[in-house]
Amino acid sequence: MDVGKTCTQSPGVTKQENLFHENRILTVENVAALLCVSTKTVYKMVEYGTIPYKDLSQSSGRNRKRKRKCIRFLLSELMSWMKGKDYV
Q1: Which domain holds residue 45?
Q2: Any bridge partners for residue 55, and if so which?
């Protein structure tokens, strides 16, 4: 990713600024990379309620794979959550 180039989606905003925009929506894979953990760990954190997330699924919960695809995270909520955690 070329951080210095300007995003076409947001005129005048660099990719780096867009990446860390407070309202950015992240996927499980994005969060796993941000926290340096596996996606399985992120799913467990969601399951145990230890990480803030948004459930965008409209299923009744019976189709677990579909539900997993609809889990999203707000960067602003994750940043606030991370402030209260100790990372090595």
Answers
A1: 23-83
A2: 71
Please count the structural domains in the chain: 1
| Residue at 27 is within a domain | yes
> Which three-class secondary structure state does DSSP give residue 73?
strand
Say if residues 44 and 31 touch (Cβ distance below 8 Å): no
Determine contact, residues 18/1, Cβ cutoff 8 Å.
Answer: no
Q: What whole-number distance in Å separates Cα of residue 55 and Cα of residue 57?
A: 6
- Of 71, 74, 62, which Cα lies nearest the Cα of 42? 71
Supply the pTM of this predicted model.
0.63
pLDDT digits (tens, 9 = 90+) for 26-45: 999 999 999 999 999 999 99
